[in-house]
Amino acid sequence: MIPTLAPVAGADFEEMLALRIEALRPSLERLGRFSPDVARVRLRSQFRPEWMKHLVVEGERVGYFTVEPREDELRLHHLYLKPAAQGRGIGAWVIDRIKSQGRPITLAALRESRANDFYRRHGFRVVAEQEFDIEYRWEALA
């Protein structure tokens, strides 16, 4: 399934926060770390509409992603999909789209999240482990 991309505006914050909470809640609850207030603060601290895109399928926003351009790499801050949209190839499509830029990609995934298996399947390697997150990096083969 190929989504379309739509721009993000400042007015989209609450809808995006709700989607982020819906996507992350099961993993955060497993770790005993679910807090809507913390989710709000974290998203607000990284809310840069110019780096963000909505993922739209059949007219419905089913997710979003955020890619920060850095000097020598891209940083994937968010890739969230509504649970009903997961497992349909949308995340893989996003990763392929980002990889097509040919620059290294870094990201962090929450421990005990299904996202870890997803990123490993897509060629990301673990570069560091922290208390709650695992850091990954992908580089194109030369």
Automatic annotation (TrEMBL):
N-acetyltransferase domain mapped to chain residues:
1-142
Q: Which domain of life is it from?
A: Bacteria
Database matches in SUPFAM superfamilies: Acyl-CoA N-acyltransferases (Nat)
| InterPro entries in the record | Acyl_CoA_acyltransferase, GNAT_dom
Q: Which CDD domains match?
A: NAT_SF
Q: Which GO terms describe its molecular function?
A: acyltransferase activity, transferring groups other than amino-acyl groups
Which Gene3D superfamilies does the record cross-reference, listed alphabetically? 3.40.630.30
Kindly state which keywords UniProt assigns to this record, in alphabetical order. Answer: Transferase
Can the keyword Transferase be found in this entry's annotation?
Answer: yes
Please list which residues make up the signal peptide: none
Protein name as catalogued: Acetyltransferase (GNAT) family protein
